[in-house]
Amino acid sequence: MRLENKKVIALVENDFEDLELWYPVLRLQEEGAQVDLVGKEANKKYIGKYGVPAESAYAFTDISADDYDAILVPGGWAPDKLRRYPEVLEFIKKMNDAKKPIGQICHAGWVLISADILKGKKVTSTPGIKDDMANAGATWSDEAVVVDGHLVSSRRPPDLPPYVKALADKLAVQ
Q1: How far is C-alpha 85 from the geometric centre of its chain's CA atoms?
Q2: pLDDT band, residue 70 (cuts 50/70/90)
Q3: Helix (H, G, I), strand (E, B) or coil at 55
Q4: What is the pLDDT of residues 117-162, one digit of tens each?
């Protein structure tokens, strides 16, 4: 399996977009990656927008970004909460500095905006935060998936197949 021995942080918080968390988690696991669900609290059940639960294995304070190869930020309304945690912003900044893959879809761009890593980058997101992305210094493009270096971004659930393929491809060469 091409992602064997790869470790991925999947951020969780209530109101995540169910498909935007679970589809990438399951696809990366199918390719051999270890994907750890990480939230504010360990062993807590977080509920997605449509009621699908996700239980965190670790709390933000239990892990170090240095021990992981990539980070996955799902969309939904969770990003508006996730970007308020200093630990989450630190994970994103460390992954960015190390040029490790950062996957973000839909509203997840808010987390990258708050981490201040988008200046000069080409990205996509849900059109609803297009202006936010542009105001953060990014060039926004209306495409299913945009890869700019180690950043892999996508718009919404129908774009999940090319998004997760691009993220897995990036992780495979990390």
Answers
A1: 15
A2: very high
A3: strand
A4: 999 999 999 999 999 999 999 999 999 999 999 999 999 999 999 9
Count Cβ atoms below 10 Å from residue 47 Cβ, excluding itself.
15
CATH superfamily for 7-172 is Class I glutamine amidotransferase (GATase) domain (3.40.50.880)
Backbone angles phi, psi at 69, to 5 degrees: -100, -20
What's the confidence (pLDDT) of residue 83?
98
Burial of 113-129, coded b for 16+ CB within 10 Å and e otherwise, reads: bbbebbeebbbbbbeeb
- What predicted TM-score, i.e. pTM, was given to this entire model? 0.97
Active-site option among 6, 100, 107, 121:
107
Indicate the angle between helix axes 18-30 and 160-172, nearest 10 degrees. 40
Q: Encoding tokens for residue 133?
A: 């992305």
Q: Residue range 96-109: average pLDDT? A: 98
| Per-position DSSP letters for 56-71, written without gaps between them | -SEEGGG--GGG-SEE
Beta-carbon neighbour count of residue 174 at 10 Å? 13
What ranges do the domains of the chain cover? 7-172
107 is catalytic: yes
